[in-house]
Amino acid sequence: MAFGRRSNGAREKRRRRIRKLRLLVVVALLLLVASAAFTYGLVTAIASQIPPLDPARHQSQADGYIYANDGKRILAVLRGSQSRVIVDSQDIAPYMKHAIIDVEDRRFEQHRGVDLRGMARALWADVSNKSVVQGGSTITQQFVKNAYVHDQRSVGRKLKEAALAWQLEQKWGKDRILTAYLNTIYFGNGAYGVQQAAKTYFGHGAKKLTLPEAALLAGIPQDPTLYDPVTNPRESRARRLVVLRDMLQQLDITAGQFRAAARTALPKPGDVHLPGTEGPAQYFVNYVKQQLVDRYGARKVFGGGLRVTTTIDLDLQLRAREAIAKTLTDRNGPSAALVAIEPDTGRVVAMVGGNNYRRSQFNLAVQGERQPGSSFKPFVLATALQQGISPSSTFVSQPTTLYAGGTFWVVHNYEDAYLGPIDLNAATIHSDNSVYAQLTRIVGPANVARTAHELGIRSRLRSYFAIGLGAQAVNPLEMARAFASFANDGRRVDGSIFGNEPRAILSVGEGTSKRPDVNLPDLHQAVRPEVAEQVNSILAGVIREGTGTHAALSDGRPEAGKTGTTENYGDAWFVGYTPHLVTAVWVGYPSTLKPMLTEFHGSPVAGGTFPALIWKTFMESAIKLKNYPPDSFTSPPALYASPKRVVWRDGRLQVDNGNCHFAADILFVENRGPKHVANCKPNEVDVPHVVGQKIADAQLRLQRQPLTAVVVYKPAAPLQRTDIVIAQYPRAGRLSSYDKVTIVVARPLHGVVPRVVGLPMRVARARLRAVGLHPVVAGLVGGPAGRVVSQAPLPGVAAARGLEVRLTVARG
Length: 812
Fold this sequence. Notes:
Elements: H1 2-47, E1 64-67, E2 74-78, H2 80-83, H3 94-104, H4 116-129, H5 139-149, H6 155-171, H7 174-182, H8 194-202, H9 211-219, H10 233-249, H11 255-263, H12 282-296, H13 298-301, E3 306-310, H14 314-327, E4 335-341, E5 348-352, H15 377-386, E6 394-397, E7 400-404, E8 407-411, E9 420-423, H16 424-429, H17 433-443, H18 445-455, H19 476-487, E10 491-495, E11 505-510, E12 517-518, E13 521-525, H20 529-545, E14 560-565, E15 571-577, E16 582-588, H21 610-626, E17 641-649, E18 652-655, E19 664-669, E20 684-686, H22 695-704, E21 708-715, E22 725-729, E23 734-736, E24 740-747, H23 761-770, E25 774-781, E26 788-792, E27 804-810
Parallel strand pairs: 1-3, 21-24, 25-27
Antiparallel strand pairs: 1-2, 3-11, 4-5, 4-16, 6-9, 7-8, 10-13, 11-12, 14-15, 15-16, 17-18, 17-19, 20-23, 22-24, 26-27
Helix pairs in contact: 1-6, 3-9, 3-10, 5-6, 5-7, 9-10, 10-11, 14-21, 15-17, 15-18, 15-20, 18-19
């Protein structure tokens, strides 16, 4: 009976398991049916959205408008058709199709809209690099995003994008998808679609695109601003090389075609013709378009119905052009760029970027980055004043050689004229390079770069010592904006919408139904107000009695400014201002750094010549037009200053302990200045790095410093070189003259590998065996029979018992 009960219980358990399995199967089938129904419904719903994706159906878009500052005068119409011209597949060069597929979606022909393998590869690359380095979207998905889902950021958007891409592949062929994609993507510089891009950059249609042209265009859509060949030629060339390598890997081009295309020059900035006719202030309009595209995207800008009111004052714009035309009368002579800004509002009220917009769309005021020369010195001055250095501090104007960053920097004044002991006021007024090189070393070049960026310079600045003399490139727009911060009590004006950018746009609206977004002034204190007041006072002397006397305004009102001239007379600047208007003027040759040695009536063009004259002509007409009052700058406070002997050391200003080289006596206001005392050593010298040098060379280098070399030996590892320094103590830093530097040299325990190249094989074998080495013939080559042609390892390295030496022997 007990056995029967156990048997019945087991059968009951089996029945329960079977019922559970049946239930699970039923649930799984129901879920499968539900999933299939959901997928079918999703695909069916999405299928109805396929026809509107065709870019040919998107030509009826709402026009947008760019207005002058009065909100009435139209400067440009923002039409979608202005930047996109639809072409058929046969009107697109095969090179263009191969290039875009190879760089963006190499499995385009294999997948069905969603590439799971590509997504996995991109995910792995992102994880490996701990950042987003690859995108997993296919060309079909990108086209769907551009044409339908736009810039929504959500999981739902991604799902819809993938589903729509898959469904699109069921209805459209690959060539139709690729053609539609090429007709919709943004190629920078206002060119929307491959046909307009080809005309913009190369002056012909997409059908005639060559291999290097197609590779250049294919690389731009990933980041149209970064890979713009006009503003970023180095990045654009590198990106084109990436595209060409991908095409070579996919066997779409040969190695010879790769090399020839890689050597091809980029389009000249002057040959890049942007679409459309903008009317007055063309260069300014194009700058505004780029700001809009960066903020809102090309699709919304072109054909999105925006109403954009800008800051440009067309009356002042006309006066700016007239001032340049009046001063620069030689058609074959230099050109000029001019930017004018209201300092209290940050409004860009005039911008001249070139002589002829139809001939060249390269904007010298924005894209033309050139060395500013001495017009950059006010940023060094402001840095010093921020640190509490008094402008009454005295320096010696003389030929100067500075030791900086391991090298000697020789500094000369303009025309080799030196003034002896002078204070910072006089050094600024007379633009003394010698004094400003010394000042740059004291305040630190990294701090100069930081101050310039705070004031409004946007270009990348490296912390080289030459920064103080204006050796790093900037553009007139950012120079005008930075000087406007001086005129505005040290406050930089940003925009509430566009952030740390020149305020060229007042408002952006969409049609008449919505309230426009207003780009209000957003003030940031870049330097203390008293610092700006001191800079203004000193720069007023530049015009009154220094290098900028040609800029003196006829009515004698308060003004300030700074000249700038590069060493070879290739660039000349004048940046000046009154309390109500700031104007930067650059003069030079746009396409080349050509010395202007005779263009100013037989004399060189310096900042105090053509640029100062253009500035004066424009400012006087602007003052008359706008009736600006002759207000004065706020006078700087009179501050007590006391001396300190200081030195720039280890990245900061420190008090000299009596042993420091290059120390200077500086006046600091209100007991400001460094408190930390430097730990300079008596007769201090830098410890040079000699690791890797031959022993004799290292000893000589230390002797010249002068330091004392002490050689110690360390047992050599097999194959280690024994003729060079392998370590040193200390590795860097500073010591007193003739202090000891220990250099470590490897000493072989079993001798070194002898040289046997050129010896008969019999002699070479005997020589190697005599020192305990094992010769092996590794190969035979042509040459005198029986002689050793090469050996490995090379002679002179540490040997070891039984070490194998491979010989290549001539067979005759």
